Amino acid sequence: MSGTDPDRLRVQAMNLLIDALAPSRILGATEFGSVEDNVFAPAAVGPNAAAMKASLDTLVQADNGGTDYNLAFDSARAVNPGASVRIFLTDGGHNSGDYLNTHLNPAPQAQTPTYVIGFSPGLAAAEDQARLQQIAADTGGQYFALPDAQALQPVMNEIQTRLTCQSPPKTFVDTVAAGGTKHHGVKIKRKSRSAQLTLTWTSPLDAFQVKKVKIKRHGRVVATKGHPLKIKTKRGSTYLVIKVTKLVPGKMTFVVKNTAAGSGAPQVTVTTQVSQSRSKK
Fold this sequence. Notes:
By secondary structure, the protein is an alpha+beta fold. It has 2 domains: 9-163, 3-Layer(aba) Sandwich (Rossmann fold); 170-277, Sandwich (Jelly Rolls). The protein has helices at residues 9-20, 45-59, 69-79, 126-139, 152-163, and strands at residues 26-32, 36-44, 86-90, 114-119, 142-146, 170-176, 181-188, 194-200, 206-217, 220-225, 228-236, 239-245, 250-261, 268-277. The strands form 3 sheets. It has a 9-stranded mixed sheet with strand order 6-14-8-12-11-10-9-13-7. The two termini are 35 Å apart. 37% of the residues are buried.
């Protein structure tokens, strides 16, 4: 994956998932190629987040050889046979013997919904596309076909919103110069108890922040940070996950600001996704 993901955005996508999931959510990770690595065993995210991220940074180095889907699913099932969902991420087609449909659990076990992410021009062959679509369809998941690694983080966030029963994200894609800002607004549903703002970009040399979060109703500000909005931010090198709770109905507005453009690009692209939940967490 070093050629298809030189900035290791797959690691950042996993870090984002760790930061966005509830502390009690169980998560494990297995890397595969011609050999497999148990990156970290299934465990609750909350007390193990730092260790999970450290293992990802250490072990996910694109050094596992070829691409053996049989090994991938057999290894994942051995580590966590009762997994409620799987996320299968690959930049290559199966190239180690015949594929034995190992994504299917043996009877009488129900199938495990599998979200499949393929990100590489190397997956353009019809056979590879059909296989990845079949894995998702057979298990009740979904296939995300990406041309490259740049969309890994937004797609991982979209999957996360589904796993946590949030609304489909409203997405804004902006190009912002250093020091520049973009203003956005989202209607807060009456039954929503929390909102998640997720910002993603591709270079760790760039940075963004969210400012001036408020809710307006009939042109009047009815909620700001601390009155009564509670805002909690988790930051990675190429993403922000912001949880806003104590919502009230109205239109939530906020400002996205480019605080660093160290990559040297005159305009930096940032994707902002806003989802809502009836949960207070």
